[in-house]
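User: Hi! I'm working on a homework problem where we have to compare a predicted structure to a textbook description. Could you give me the structure for the chain below?
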Amino acid sequence: MKVLVVGGGGREHALAWKLGPSPLVSEVLV
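Assistant: Happy to help. Predicted structure tokens:
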């Protein structure tokens, strides 16, 4: 699954950082 995180603040960065290692997520776009 590809995930798009919209925004550049701390919350968005933390969300992308936590989703990265997930085996369900193939790509994280910030």
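For your comparison, note the following. The mean pLDDT is 92. Residues 10-19 form the longest helix (10 residues). Good luck with the assignment!
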